[in-house]
Amino acid sequence: MSALAVAAIVFACVFGGAVLGMVLQGILPEHHLSDPSRDVVRLGTGLVATMAALVLGLLVASAKGAYDTQKDGLDEITANLTLLDSTLAQYGPETREARAILRSTVASAISRLWPADASQESTLGAAETTAGGKSFYDEVLALMPATETQRALQAQSLLIARDLARARLLLIAQQETPPISGVFLVVLTSWLVVLFVSFGLFAPRNTTVLSALLISAFSVSGAIFLIMELGDPFAGLIQISSAPLRNAFVHLGV
Amino acid sequence: MSALLVAVIILVCVFGGALAGMALRRVLPAPHLSEESKDVVRLATGLVATMAALVLGLLVASAKSSYDTQRDGLDEIAANVTLLDTVLAQYGPQAQDVRQGLRRVVAGAMARLWPTDGSQTPTLGGPETTAGGKLLHAEILALVPATDAQRALQAQALQIGSNLARVRLLLIAQHQSTVISGVFLVILTFWLVVLFASFGLFAPRNATVLAALLISALSVAGAIFLILELDQPFEGLIQISDAPLRNAFADLGK
Predict the structure, then answer these.
(1) Could you say which residues of chain B have pLDDT below 70?
(2) CB count in 10 Å sphere of residue A47
(3) pTM of the model
(4) Inter-chain contact A61–B55, Cβ cutoff 8 Å?
(5) Where do the H-state alpha helices sit in chain A?
(6) Is residue A219 less than 8 Å (CB to CB) from chain B?
(7) Do residue B40 and residue A229 have CB atoms under 8 angstroms apart?
(8) Is the per-residue pLDDT at A213 higher than 90?
(9) B40: chain A residues, CB-CB within 8 Å
């Protein structure tokens, strides 16, 4: 489900809660809504409010942290690609074939990660990229170093290539774990609904109050939207920029 | 867009929100602003306030840590440059040319990263530096070691050189991607505007209240300024110091 859809559902539930509270206000007997009752309800929901605000704030921050980690992983891949290519270039013209494979693998990985056609899903762990990487590795292994220097450069290339593969596999693993589990989301939403029901229960019925509740519900579901969006850094409105990798790609094999 | 400009825009939006709240107070009928209404609005926006404060605080902390990462990268470069120079000095007078080359490359890189002319944008990934680095690598490779010690020193120099290149490429990749996306900033600003509008809605009109709201809005915009400014460690008011690299440079080739 897209982040926007989830946020819209949460918004509907939360604001629906506030409206429900207002309806309940009309139904409940008078003494249920007395000042002492109100105080107790407020104390109870005050606890929930602090908890929900803390959890939401920390979740946004941790989603941002996870997003940054994936961005750092991509930066590392970018740096290693350039380094790998220039190490092979130093080896000599024998590596032309390997560098061509590297270039085409990176090209296909970029087009799969940021598809030009928006209807396609962005994939990080495409089988073609893995296969391309493996055939690149074999190509480097098959080089016959003639001098001591070439031997060193070959060993270094293999090391960098392994680093690259590790960074990529880590990214794939990070991508597969969802930022927030369904149960967590349901519990969090139920706190918010409870809160807004209690707000609605003691709210005078006027447009100012109604719009204040609407905007607050909107803000809270904005936080959920952010959490979901940051959880998928290669799709949606908030995306990791492809610029560093594309810039590195331009210089590959040249 | 510069950090200062964005912060000013946010300041205008947020303080504008407070003023809009005050203006609304005049327009709205009295029952809309009763104690009960005020209570509900305060509770609902309290949730948003806690959330926004947490997110802002944590974002500043994460921007600071990404700034520190880049500073550490630069420190590592400075240390590696000195180490490389020392290893080459140990190699013997045959490496004197390479050491002079290293000095030139570092001088060029520093001039581009911290331009004396303020109108120039600092560049980290200058093609001259890349070309210079490659030339250095080739020169070290071309040394003909006569003894085992020289062979070991040459291998070490190559390793340090490749490490330098990796750290530099990583810095370049990190530098190209921004810490906070536009969507994130818009949502955060929306929360702040909502908050300040609700403050303004129930605020008496006097200079003290106005000044307090202005200063709060200024502080909040200051936090956003910090986040954006720390994201550009080689530009603007908060910059990574060039002292470590300059100190390393002073001793190069001597």
Answers:
(1) 179
(2) 10
(3) 0.83
(4) yes
(5) 3-27, 35-91, 96-113, 127-141, 148-176, 182-201, 207-231, 243-251
(6) yes
(7) no
(8) yes
(9) 199, 202-204, 209, 212-213
Task: State the total domains in chain B.
Answer: 1
User: What pLDDT, on the 0 to 100 scale, is given for residue A154?
Assistant: 92
The answer, yes or no, to whether ipTM is higher than 0.85 is no
Dihedral (CA of B191, B47, B201, B57) sign: negative
CB distance A229–B179 less than 8 Å? no
User: Could you tell me which chain A residue has the CA closest to the CA of B182?
Assistant: A238
Domain that holds residue A92: 3-115+122-251
A45, A204, A229: residue with CB nearest B37:
A204
Cα–Cα distance list, B88 to A112, B24, B150, B152, B154 (Å): 45, 73, 9, 11, 8
Q: Flag if B169 and A49 touch (Cβ within 8 Å).
A: no
**Containing structural domain, residue B169:** 3-116+123-250
- Total number of domains in chain A: 1
pLDDT above 70 covers a percentage of chain A that reads 100
Residue pair A81/A106 in contact (Cβ under 8 Å)? The answer is yes
Mean pLDDT of A190-210: 91
